[in-house]
């Protein structure tokens, strides 16, 4: 090594070791926060796909009618199937104070890596135990069941299930006393998977009373999107062909989907919405921390190296090149870089204790500490290298003045400056950074404005997102829930009694049938028609109007986005009875989901149109209670009817778990903004110590100097704030549109006007206040002392 470089490095360490260590600590904290955010963001974003992999989530899933055994037996041989499991499915009534039904599936021993829930409590039921049950997490939470509880299942016969809408009396199937031995986690517990899993022994004991079959298949996916889509289409076509020439099954098509679903490629829509919110929060926080950290560390290193400016001039005179001078300071900075790497690595390692944020924690297959050694090692090395790179860059900038150069200065008349000198000089200092050639180097105004803009944009977007989330969660009508009670099966005698009940303010019978869209009929959704029996139970309308005649339809918000349907467009539907219709879209709605349908799905048409498509649609009812009567109505009806109080949909529950995140993010960004403003303004005013002294020599009064520095402070932050507010409004609107479209609710964003409107004056006042003390002190400083400042 060059002895001169080593000698200069030792000298830099003697004079600046404490500053380097402090800057290394700050850089380590910033790097650790960035890397820790990356660890948490990755764990949060991958929770769902990791659970999919761990549980062996099936690629294709279908209901198979119990009265068409030929269809069931052909399931394993459908195109593309490499592995399959066919289970029996039962509907059972759970004995208890209220009427409650559940679905149970069981079959022969399933392949180990297909439909294998992660056990979060208890254990897996023993194969030979017919009385042991594994509950899905949703059922366990809804029914308040735990490991060790005993429940009684009164199973319905196949014929009773087929008469569900018209009534069947008491369950005629077997009564089974079951023990909950485990609670399992899956990406979703719904549809053909049911609510719980029993054992092969249970299946052998009760196979004759099963209400149907559930088929699960692994397809020969290659990862090529076009190939996999074609494979799904072939599977769908082949399964549909198996029904050709067969008698119409009693259940499939009316009660359950007639077409298969593809769970591994059609994830829970709530997952995507939550990931967007969490991703925005984490990466927005990381971006602001990175910008703020780079500014603080960069300016700290720059000031450190500027203090050694006379030394660099001596080194230049002794023959050291600019590269050698910068290299010596980089060598000295390795002490700070080492501290930064160690601190960043430790914080990144500690971030492994943080589980997925918000509702995504319900998908975590491996709770507990999860160290990410790859990010720890690579991140620590990256922090080390970045710190040294910043040291090299700032040393090179500080060394540009080692050789004295004469730069011609063009003098122009400044008429504005003659009338308002403080305004003119303050603007010049803010935008050009100096009054005289060879002044102190600072952070460019564009960089400062960009940093402030990003921070303010993050605060505005976070505020808008938080306000929109809060309004959605607090307003059930915005996600379609406009009634107090839902009755699963609306029978005429019950409807007549409810219509005459003075405790009922509104009663609507909802007729339902399943339809498929388009020519390929690849997706089956519910079609609704509302028949008002008493009062008014409104429908949540996003845009347009409700259908008023046959041939018109209002589509769910998620359907409109997925199928790219707008007002005036036409959509072809085919009912499960095989009847077809072409309908014109008159509105977009958020229908109240029936039978566990995803939020924002479904079509709403007139009763006459639904009657043309279905011979005997299913019927449920929405009940709007008189003020204060909902509790009494539920307690009475739940003893004899399957009635449900309003429940927060999974999609909304997912977003509700994120309500605090935008607030926390906005507060963190505000704290970073305050710290950044203090650093920027104090640094800017200190950089202009010599300029203030020159102004004093030229006759400026202390008041004029304070005014000049006030203009400097305001001009430094004003462009960034204005740009940041505009960017934040756009980013907040775009982010909420993405969240709303994924969730299936209205996309109109909530703009909290007053909090956003107060940002501009608050930041300006804050800038003036934060810059006041150093400005006053600078204005009072002796001129001789200020002129000697570097």
UniProtKB/TrEMBL annotation:
Chief localization: membrane
Topology versus the membrane: Multi-pass membrane protein
InterPro entries: ABC3_permease_C, Lipoprotein-release_system
Residue ranges occupied by any ABC3 transporter permease C-terminal domain in the UniProt entry: 664-782
Compartments (UniProt record): Cell membrane
Pfam families recorded: FtsX
Coiled coil segments of this chain: none
Similarity comment: Belongs to the ABC-4 integral membrane protein family. LolC/E subfamily.
Full protein name: ABC3 transporter permease C-terminal domain-containing protein
Species of origin: Pseudonocardia ailaonensis
């Amino acid at each position: 090594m060059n002895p001169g470089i080593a000698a200069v490095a030792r000298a830099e360490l003697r004079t600046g070791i404490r500053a380097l260590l402090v800057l290394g600590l700050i850089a380590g904290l910033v790097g650790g926060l960035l890397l820790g955010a990356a660890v948490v963001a990755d764990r949060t974003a991958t929770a769902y796909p990791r659970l999919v992999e761990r549980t062996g989530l099936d690629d294709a899933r279908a209901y198979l009618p119990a009265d068409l055994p030929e269809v069931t037996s052909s399931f394993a041989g459908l195109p593309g199937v490499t592995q399959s499991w066919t289970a029996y499915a039962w509907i059972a009534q759970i004995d208890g104070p209220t009427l409650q039904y559940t679905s149970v599936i069981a079959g022969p021993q399933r392949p180990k890596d297909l439909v294998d829930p992660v056990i979060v409590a208890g254990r897996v039921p023993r194969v030979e135990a017919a009385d042991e049950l594994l509950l899905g997490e949703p059922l366990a939470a809804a029914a308040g069941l735990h490991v060790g509880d005993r429940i009684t299942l009164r199973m319905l016969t196949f014929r009773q299930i087929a008469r569900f809408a018209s009534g069947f009396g008491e369950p005629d199937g077997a009564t089974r006393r079951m023990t909950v031995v485990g609670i399992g986690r899956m990406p979703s517990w719904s549809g053909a998977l049911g609510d719980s899993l029993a054992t092969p022994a249970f299946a052998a004991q009760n196979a004759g009373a099963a209400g149907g079959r559930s088929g699960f298949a692994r397809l020969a996916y290659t990862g090529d999107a076009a190939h996999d889509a074609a494979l799904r289409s072939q599977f769908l076509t082949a399964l549909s062909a198996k029904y050709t020439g067969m008698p119409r099954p009693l259940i499939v098509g009316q009660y359950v989907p007639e077409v298969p679903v593809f769970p591994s490629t059609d994830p829970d829509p709530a997952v995507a919405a939550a990931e967007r919110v969490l991703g925005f929060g984490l990466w927005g926080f990381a971006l602001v921390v990175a910008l703020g950290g780079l500014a603080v560390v960069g300016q700290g290193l720059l000031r450190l190296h500027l203090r050694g400016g006379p030394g660099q001039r001596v080194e230049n005179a002794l023959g050291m090149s600019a590269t050698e001078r910068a290299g010596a300071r980089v060598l000295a900075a390795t002490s700070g870089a080492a501290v930064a790497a160690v601190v960043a690595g430790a914080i990144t390692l500690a971030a492994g204790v943080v589980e997925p944020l918000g509702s995504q924690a319900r998908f975590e297959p491996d709770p507990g500490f999860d160290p990410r050694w790859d990010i720890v090692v690579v991140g620590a090395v990256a922090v080390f290298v970045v710190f040294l790179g910043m040291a090299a860059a700032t040393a090179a900038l500080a060394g540009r003045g080692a050789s004295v150069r004469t730069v011609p200065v063009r003098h122009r008349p400044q008429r504005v400056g003659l009338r308002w000198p403080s305004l003119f000089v303050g603007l010049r200092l803010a935008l050009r950074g100096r009054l005289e050639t060879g002044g102190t180097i600072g952070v460019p105004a564009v960089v400062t404005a960009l940093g402030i803009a990003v921070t303010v944009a993050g605060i505005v977007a976070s505020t808008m997102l938080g306000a929109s989330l809060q309004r959605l969660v607090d307003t059930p009508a915005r996600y379609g829930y406009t009634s107090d009670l839902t009755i699963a099966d609306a029978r005429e005698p019950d409807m007549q009694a409810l219509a005459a009940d003075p405790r009922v303010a509104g009663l609507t019978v909802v007729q339902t049938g399943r339809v498929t869209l388009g020519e390929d009929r690849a997706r089956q959704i519910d079609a609704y028609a509302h028949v008002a029996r008493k009062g008014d139970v409104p429908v949540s309308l996003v845009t347009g109007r409700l259908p008023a005649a046959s041939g018109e339809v209002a589509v769910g918000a998620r359907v409109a986005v997925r199928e790219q349907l707008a007002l005036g467009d036409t959509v072809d539907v085919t009912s499960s009875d095989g009847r077809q219709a072409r309908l014109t879209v008159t509105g977009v709605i958020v229908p109240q989901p029936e039978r566990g349908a995803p939020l924002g799905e479904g079509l709403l048409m007139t009763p006459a149109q639904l009657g043309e498509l279905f011979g005997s649609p299913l019927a449920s009812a929405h009940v709007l209670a008189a003020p204060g009567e909902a509790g009494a109505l539920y307690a009475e009806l739940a003893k004899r009817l399957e009635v449900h109080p309003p429940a927060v949909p999974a999609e909304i529950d997912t977003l509700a778990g994120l309500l605090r995140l935008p607030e926390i993010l906005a507060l963190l960004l505000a704290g970073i903004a305050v710290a950044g403003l203090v650093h920027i303004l104090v640094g800017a005013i200190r950089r202009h110590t010599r300029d203030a002294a020159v102004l004093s020599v030229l006759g400026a009064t202390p008041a004029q100097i304070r005014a000049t520095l006030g203009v400097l402070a305001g001009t430094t932050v004003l462009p960034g704030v204005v740009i940041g507010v505009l960017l934040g409004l756009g980013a907040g609107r775009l982010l909420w549109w993405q969240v709303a479209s994924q969730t299936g609710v209205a996309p109109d964003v909530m703009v909290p006007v007053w909090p956003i409107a107060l940002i501009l004056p608050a930041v300006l006042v804050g800038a003036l206040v934060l810059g006041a003390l150093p400005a006053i002190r600078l204005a009072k400083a002796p001129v001789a002392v200020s002129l000697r400042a570097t």
